[in-house]
Amino acid sequence: MRAAVAISQSAEDPLSGLALDADHARPEPRDGWTRLRVHAASLNPHDVWTLKGVGHPAERIPVILGCDAAGVTDDGREVVVFPVWGDPARGGGDETFDPRRGILSEHFDGGLADELVVPDQMVVDKPASLSFAEAACLGIVWGTAYRMLFTRAGVKPGDRVLVQGGAGGVASASIALASAAGATVYATARTEEKRAFALAQGAHAAFESGARLPEKVDVVVDTVGDATWRHSLRAVRPGGVITTCGATTGGMAPSEIQRIFFQQLSIIGSTGCTRTEFDAMLRTVERTGVRPQFDTIAFDEIRTGYERLEAGDVRGKIVVDFTR
Ligand SMILES: NC(=O)c1ccc[n+]([C@@H]2O[C@H](COP(=O)([O-])OP(=O)(O)OC[C@H]3O[C@@H](n4cnc5c(N)ncnc54)[C@H](OP(=O)(O)O)[C@@H]3O)[C@@H](O)[C@H]2O)c1
Prior knowledge:
alpha/beta; Quinone Oxidoreductase, Chain A, domain 1; Rossmann fold; 2 domains; six-stranded parallel β-sheet; binds NADP nicotinamide-adenine-dinucleotide phosphate
């Protein structure tokens, strides 16, 4: 079968460790695990972190990349993979707090292959109204955005929310979900074309990175890190919340502790989502009609797809069509 495999790690040249293997061994079925034929899988920055050796130990290489997939099981169910592997009991009732948690492609092979075998609890029926490509966009970025907004930051109807870097995967999901939930959503993005994309995703207004907003916001969603953190600290109202799940441009921006205590800000981290949140996110997508936006590429174009992610050339998601 075809598989996108991380065969080595390099911080300087991560894509040197990517092999697009056209003749990889098929995964064997196992008790308690489900095998699916992958129809679509999406690219995530996490794959590049794996290739860089960040958060993925060298002894777990080689591994098939891919944190998100949707397909059909051996017995004909149309499914999407819930990408978090963890034990709610070890996490005090929340699998994302399990100290041993991981996501698809960390502890076992990921979804960028013609076939995938995952623990049964990671297999979820695909909502009928979603295509395989749409479903393959949802696990990592939409699930994470749902938890950040509603569980961690407590976004409510009527809140004002700023989403930094609005064309990104988590960011565009955050715009769509917050807007569908009745928040007023402001977005920043680096180009006119990406600001138009953010507006199409449901933002009420879009601005250049760092621009002054019409009003202070209740919640900031910042996945960008160093490049936007200073702006995030100034955009939020006294007593407001900044929530983060990533730091694409680096994680060492000055924290400005005086501003945090004087303005009584809450800085809230978030990672992944629980199965309960994933199910609720799927229901939200079905019920509201909001959908991920994506470009589709073929298996042979995966390297170019990662180059685009690295260059910031993304609007929503990049999906690999495994039916071609
Ligand atoms: N903790 C978790 O569970 C979790 C889950 C998902 C993702 N993440 C992490 O969150 C981050 C975002 O993931 P993603 O999938 O959304 O990535 P993505 O689709 O590649 O989006 C990257 C974002 O970074 C912005 N950006 C990049 N360089 C910038 C700069 N110099 N100035 C301003 N904005 C800049 C882009 O904004 P523009 O719109 O202006 O291009 C874009 O929104 C990654 O670091 C990822 O690893 C973590």
